[in-house]
Write a structure and sequence with these properties.
Blueprint: H1 12-34, H2 49-72, H3 76-100, H4 107-139, H5 148-151
Protein backbone atom coordinates (compact mmCIF):
# COMPACT_ATOMS: atom_id res chain seq x y z
CA UNK A 1 0.00 0.00 0.00
CA UNK A 2 1.31 3.48 -0.87
CA UNK A 3 2.30 6.02 1.72
CA UNK A 4 -0.07 8.90 2.42
CA UNK A 5 2.78 11.09 3.62
CA UNK A 6 4.02 13.76 1.20
CA UNK A 7 7.52 13.32 -0.14
CA UNK A 8 10.09 15.01 2.04
CA UNK A 9 12.37 17.61 0.56
CA UNK A 10 16.07 17.41 1.26
CA UNK A 11 17.29 19.70 4.03
CA UNK A 12 17.74 23.39 3.25
CA UNK A 13 21.52 22.94 3.48
CA UNK A 14 21.51 20.07 1.00
CA UNK A 15 19.28 22.02 -1.38
CA UNK A 16 21.52 25.10 -1.16
CA UNK A 17 24.59 22.97 -1.82
CA UNK A 18 22.92 21.60 -4.95
CA UNK A 19 21.93 25.07 -6.10
CA UNK A 20 25.47 26.32 -5.56
CA UNK A 21 26.98 23.40 -7.47
CA UNK A 22 24.57 23.99 -10.38
CA UNK A 23 25.67 27.64 -10.49
CA UNK A 24 29.36 26.71 -10.43
CA UNK A 25 29.00 24.01 -13.10
CA UNK A 26 26.87 26.17 -15.42
CA UNK A 27 29.19 29.16 -15.00
CA UNK A 28 32.20 26.97 -15.81
CA UNK A 29 30.49 25.74 -18.99
CA UNK A 30 29.69 29.32 -20.04
CA UNK A 31 33.33 30.30 -19.55
CA UNK A 32 34.65 27.22 -21.39
CA UNK A 33 32.30 27.64 -24.35
CA UNK A 34 32.59 31.42 -24.69
CA UNK A 35 36.12 32.16 -23.51
CA UNK A 36 39.20 32.02 -25.64
CA UNK A 37 39.59 29.76 -27.58
CA UNK A 38 36.15 28.57 -26.49
CA UNK A 39 34.00 26.07 -28.34
CA UNK A 40 36.22 26.38 -31.45
CA UNK A 41 38.91 24.38 -29.62
CA UNK A 42 36.59 21.42 -29.08
CA UNK A 43 37.52 19.12 -31.98
CA UNK A 44 34.12 17.49 -32.54
CA UNK A 45 32.19 20.77 -32.78
CA UNK A 46 31.68 22.25 -36.26
CA UNK A 47 31.29 25.88 -37.28
CA UNK A 48 27.51 25.26 -37.11
CA UNK A 49 27.89 25.46 -33.33
CA UNK A 50 27.57 29.24 -33.71
CA UNK A 51 23.92 28.66 -34.74
CA UNK A 52 23.04 27.02 -31.41
CA UNK A 53 25.48 28.69 -29.02
CA UNK A 54 23.09 31.51 -28.14
CA UNK A 55 20.47 28.97 -27.02
CA UNK A 56 23.04 26.98 -25.05
CA UNK A 57 24.13 30.24 -23.40
CA UNK A 58 20.51 31.17 -22.66
CA UNK A 59 19.87 27.77 -21.13
CA UNK A 60 22.96 27.98 -18.92
CA UNK A 61 22.15 31.56 -17.90
CA UNK A 62 18.59 30.54 -17.00
CA UNK A 63 19.91 27.71 -14.83
CA UNK A 64 22.31 30.11 -13.10
CA UNK A 65 19.57 32.69 -12.51
CA UNK A 66 17.03 30.14 -11.26
CA UNK A 67 19.51 28.56 -8.87
CA UNK A 68 20.57 31.99 -7.58
CA UNK A 69 16.91 32.68 -6.79
CA UNK A 70 16.57 29.26 -5.14
CA UNK A 71 19.53 30.04 -2.88
CA UNK A 72 17.53 32.89 -1.36
CA UNK A 73 13.96 31.64 -1.83
CA UNK A 74 12.93 28.10 -2.72
CA UNK A 75 9.39 27.24 -1.73
CA UNK A 76 8.19 24.24 -3.76
CA UNK A 77 5.86 26.29 -5.99
CA UNK A 78 8.68 28.70 -6.94
CA UNK A 79 11.01 25.76 -7.59
CA UNK A 80 8.38 24.17 -9.86
CA UNK A 81 7.92 27.43 -11.76
CA UNK A 82 11.68 27.93 -12.18
CA UNK A 83 12.18 24.32 -13.22
CA UNK A 84 9.36 24.65 -15.76
CA UNK A 85 11.04 27.69 -17.32
CA UNK A 86 14.55 26.23 -17.37
CA UNK A 87 13.30 22.91 -18.73
CA UNK A 88 11.39 24.72 -21.48
CA UNK A 89 14.54 26.54 -22.53
CA UNK A 90 16.53 23.30 -22.38
CA UNK A 91 13.90 21.61 -24.57
CA UNK A 92 14.14 24.38 -27.18
CA UNK A 93 17.94 24.06 -27.04
CA UNK A 94 17.89 20.29 -27.53
CA UNK A 95 15.47 20.57 -30.46
CA UNK A 96 17.64 23.20 -32.14
CA UNK A 97 20.79 21.12 -31.56
CA UNK A 98 18.95 18.16 -33.19
CA UNK A 99 18.06 20.35 -36.19
CA UNK A 100 21.53 21.85 -36.66
CA UNK A 101 23.56 18.89 -35.35
CA UNK A 102 26.84 20.81 -35.02
CA UNK A 103 28.97 17.73 -34.47
CA UNK A 104 31.64 16.04 -36.55
CA UNK A 105 31.45 12.45 -35.36
CA UNK A 106 31.74 8.94 -36.76
CA UNK A 107 28.41 7.39 -37.71
CA UNK A 108 28.29 5.32 -34.51
CA UNK A 109 28.86 8.36 -32.31
CA UNK A 110 26.43 10.45 -34.38
CA UNK A 111 23.75 7.85 -33.76
CA UNK A 112 24.54 7.77 -30.03
CA UNK A 113 24.32 11.56 -29.79
CA UNK A 114 21.02 11.58 -31.71
CA UNK A 115 19.63 8.93 -29.33
CA UNK A 116 20.81 11.02 -26.37
CA UNK A 117 19.10 14.10 -27.84
CA UNK A 118 15.85 12.13 -28.21
CA UNK A 119 16.12 11.06 -24.56
CA UNK A 120 16.70 14.69 -23.53
CA UNK A 121 13.75 15.92 -25.62
CA UNK A 122 11.34 13.25 -24.35
CA UNK A 123 12.61 13.63 -20.77
CA UNK A 124 12.19 17.40 -20.96
CA UNK A 125 8.61 17.02 -22.20
CA UNK A 126 7.81 14.65 -19.33
CA UNK A 127 9.51 16.95 -16.81
CA UNK A 128 7.51 19.93 -18.07
CA UNK A 129 4.22 18.04 -17.66
CA UNK A 130 5.23 17.05 -14.13
CA UNK A 131 6.17 20.64 -13.23
CA UNK A 132 2.90 21.98 -14.70
CA UNK A 133 0.90 19.48 -12.62
CA UNK A 134 2.89 20.28 -9.46
CA UNK A 135 2.56 24.00 -10.01
CA UNK A 136 -1.18 23.69 -10.69
CA UNK A 137 -1.61 21.69 -7.48
CA UNK A 138 0.25 24.34 -5.48
CA UNK A 139 -1.65 27.20 -7.06
CA UNK A 140 -5.03 25.55 -6.45
CA UNK A 141 -4.19 24.71 -2.85
CA UNK A 142 -3.93 20.96 -3.37
CA UNK A 143 -0.18 20.57 -2.86
CA UNK A 144 1.33 19.34 0.42
CA UNK A 145 1.52 22.23 2.86
CA UNK A 146 -0.13 24.39 0.19
CA UNK A 147 -0.82 27.07 2.77
CA UNK A 148 2.90 27.82 2.54
CA UNK A 149 2.28 29.26 -0.94
CA UNK A 150 0.98 32.40 0.67
CA UNK A 151 3.61 32.58 3.41
CA UNK A 152 6.60 31.67 1.23
CA UNK A 153 7.83 28.94 3.61
Amino acid sequence: MGSTHPARRPSAGARRTGYGLAIVFSTALLIILNGSPGWQAIPFLTSDTAQVLWLVNLSLAAVIAANAVYLAYDPPWAKSLGDLVTTGIALATAIRIWQVFPFSLSSGWSTAVRVLLVVVIVGSCIAMVVQIVLLARWLTGHGPHSGSLRTGH
